[in-house]
Amino acid sequence: MDGFLGWAARLGAGEVVAGALLLNAVLFVAAVAAGRALVRRYGDRRVAPPPGPVTGAEVALTVVALLINSGVGVAGWALWKAGLVTLSASTGPRVLLELLAFTLVMDVLAYAAHWIAHRRRLYRLAHELHHRYPDPRPSTLFVLHPLEALGFGGAWLAILTVWELSALALGGFVLLNLVFGLLGHLGVEPLPARVRRRPVFRWVALPMFHVGHHLDPGVNFGFYTTVWDRLFGTVDPAYDRMRHAVDPAAARLPDALQSPA
Fold first, then answer.
1. Which is an annotated Pfam family here (predicted)?
2. pTM for the whole thing?
3. Alpha-carbon distance 109 to 57, whole Å?
4. In 3D, which of 142, 141, 127, 166 has the Cα closest to residue 61?
5. What number of H helices and E strands is found in the chain?
6. How far apart are CA 72 and CA 78, in angstroms?
7. DSSP state of 161
C-alpha cells in the first residue's frame, strides 16, 4: 500500500483527471452490466414495475453525474496532495473496522440528508428529479440532480479532512456504496426468502428497501441500514412482511387484498 500511495503522489494533474474519468466510466459499465444480469436472472422476483425506455434526459443526467464523481475524485487527490486529507497505508483487520465505522457515519448522514431533501421546499430544488423515475433500473443510481451528486461527494470529502482513513478502507467504501446503490435500483430482489429472513437483514438494507422508497417516497430514507428508519418510524410498514415473504411484491399488498395461501 505504501507503494501505491507513493505512485499516486507522483501523478500529474492531467493523469489524475484522465484516470478519474476512466475509473468512473469502468465502474458505470461494470455496474450496469452486473445489474442487467441480475435483473434477467431474478426477473421473477420483481418488486417494482418494469421501467420504460431510457430517455435522453436520463442519459444526460448520468453523464453529468459521472463527470461530477470524477471531479470529486480529483478534488480528493488534490486535498490529499495538499495535506488536508490524510490516508494511511494500514492493512489487516483495522481496515475492516475503519470501513464499518466510516459506512455507519455516512449512513446516518445519508439518512438525515435524504429526509431533509424530502421537505417540501427543498424537494423541488433537487431531489424531485430522481423521483421522476419511480420504476428503477440499474442506471437509475446515476440519475441525480447535479446538486445531489455534489452534495454526497462533498460530504465524504469533508469527513476525510478530519478523519485519517486507510486507503484500503476508502476504496472499500467506494465499492460498497456502488454495490448498495446498484442493488437498490434493480427493481428485483435477488436474495431468496431464506436469506432475507436472517436477523442481520433486519438491520442491513435489502435491495427491496430502497425500491420501496421509489414506490412510496415517504418511507425508507436509509441507504445502507434500516436502523434510522426503525428508530424514527419511517420504515415501510410492509417491509418486514415483504422481507419474510417468498413473493415480496404480493406481500406489499394490504392483508385484505392478498390472495389466500
1. FA_hydroxylase
2. 0.86
3. 28
4. 142
5. 12, 2
6. 10
7. T
